[in-house]
Amino acid sequence: WRRLPPAPPGLPLLGYLPLLGPLPHRKLQAMAAKHGPVMLLRLGRVPTVVASSAAAAQEVMKTHDLAFASRPRARMADRLVYGRDMAFAPYGEHWRQSRRVCVLHLLSYRRVRSFRHAREQEAAAMVGRVRRASPGGRGAVNVTALIISYTNGIISRAAFGDEGRFGVDGGEKLTKLFADFEELLGTVTFGDFVPWLAWVDALMGLDAKAARTSAQMDALLERVIADHRQRRRDSRREHDGHRDFVDVMLDVNDEADKNAAGGVMFDDVAIKAIVLDTFAAATDTTYTSLVWAMAELINHPREMRRVQDEIRAAVGDGDRVTEDHLPKLRYLKCVIKETLRLRTPLPLLLPRETMEDTQLLGYHVPARSRVIVNAWAIARDPATWDRAEEFVPERFAGDDLTTDYLLGQDFRFVPFGAGRRGCPGVGFAVPSMELALASLLYHFDWELPAGGPSKLEMDELNGLSVRLKATLLLVAKPWSP
Ligand code: HEM
């Protein structure tokens, strides 16, 4: 006899799918309050287990990590990242090799540090754009657009090289292409849950849009890879220690070629898929978190003052924030953590799939179940957090900030997931966010536009990540030491 998790009944055929609403993390939180920290829902034809407590998350991502380490197939990922990427890949040899390259080569500490100059330039460019958009603090600035441009900038430079800077200056068409790509990748299709309803996706134009976007992305990446190959033939990169993701993937192939014992080679499709993957995983999450952080600070003037005082004291008379200042900005780190706690950009992380029959808090979980960890609900659980619903950055002040975000330590706070499938991009994300936020807060005092509401509406919008629904428009009053 095997005890299955409590299973609230859904509708015939579609199960719980249509009942999750526009913000599933909220609906699932309310359901967990009634049914407990482990639930079994049928979404279309897919049995889905939902984990909603720190203890359940720990079993998924640590105790039984291997059993929970696969991912379900996603039709959009098949179309957009060739079904050959890493983040959406089932557990297996392809995922293992891709992850290895990602962790050892693309996102190593040394590699992330090598992009420091690109981050600092992009942060300075963002500050310049604020000044131009709001001369002398007159007129509102579209902070959302600025932050998207900054994030696209640093990530496309890391992925495609300094010539591949595709932010606002690189053309609106590309910004739109990236936005469409991320939106599609974040779209849950009917076909994923109810195969015989896949025609609805076609009817809604999703398939056609995916085909169009994928063809444009593919052409762009083909060009980028061809340019890189050409440059390598010309040896123009010989003495250039600074290498982007495409270079690194081509280097890995060259090494494998030279190595008589062989090594793993990545064909062009795999290279395109992995580069696109990191791009997709990095941009939406990073920009969403930055916008949320600015929004929370606007609604919390005391915390805003405190973090600005800290940054301005650390930078002193310097004319800009650099990464050398970041280790001193302890309160800023708390602000970012508190933002990730309350505004977890991927509230349900990325879905997992069980590879074998396993257990979760004593319940039986069959092989090939979809598994969702409601990290957002866990981070607001009043049983484990004081003032769980409030923005209180100080709560993280006692943390040892040198071991920041050590995944798999505290399962009450898992915005990056943990275990084998945990986010390999934390080391990239953290300095990108800290530098951007510190730069915006050092150079300007921020206010809501006069004549509007005195508090910002914090409504959410679901996509690849859950973001602030409103466009963040703020007035930037220049500040100088
Ligand atoms: C605030 C920023 C970010 C957040 C909140 C975030 C969060 C996550 C989460 C929740 C997962 C799934 C974890 C799991 O299943 O346990 C994930 C996976 C992943 N992330 Fe991030 N991420 C961020 C930034 C980045 C960046 C900057 C990169 C790369 C430059 C990146 C690359 C990836 C990749 C490649 C995966 C897939 C890992 C796998 O399936 O093995 N992420 N991320």
UniProtKB/TrEMBL annotation:
<comment type="similarity">
    <text>Belongs to the cytochrome P450 family.</text>
</comment>
<dbReference type="InterPro" id="IPR001128">
    <property type="entry name" value="Cyt_P450"/>
</dbReference>
<protein>
    <recommendedName>
        <fullName>Cytochrome P450 71A1</fullName>
    </recommendedName>
</protein>
<dbReference type="GO" id="GO:0016705">
    <property type="term" value="F:oxidoreductase activity, acting on paired donors, with incorporation or reduction of molecular oxygen"/>
</dbReference>
<dbReference type="InterPro" id="IPR036396">
    <property type="entry name" value="Cyt_P450_sf"/>
</dbReference>
<dbReference type="Pfam" id="PF00067">
    <property type="entry name" value="p450"/>
</dbReference>
<keyword id="KW-0560">Oxidoreductase</keyword>
<keyword id="KW-0349">Heme</keyword>
<dbReference type="InterPro" id="IPR002401">
    <property type="entry name" value="Cyt_P450_E_grp-I"/>
</dbReference>
<keyword id="KW-0732">Signal</keyword>
<keyword id="KW-0408">Iron</keyword>
<dbReference type="GO" id="GO:0020037">
    <property type="term" value="F:heme binding"/>
</dbReference>
<dbReference type="InterPro" id="IPR017972">
    <property type="entry name" value="Cyt_P450_CS"/>
</dbReference>
<feature type="binding site" description="axial binding residue">
    <location>
        <position position="423"/>
    </location>
    <ligand>
        <name>heme</name>
    </ligand>
</feature>
<dbReference type="GO" id="GO:0005506">
    <property type="term" value="F:iron ion binding"/>
</dbReference>
<keyword id="KW-0479">Metal-binding</keyword>
<dbReference type="GO" id="GO:0004497">
    <property type="term" value="F:monooxygenase activity"/>
</dbReference>
<keyword id="KW-0503">Monooxygenase</keyword>
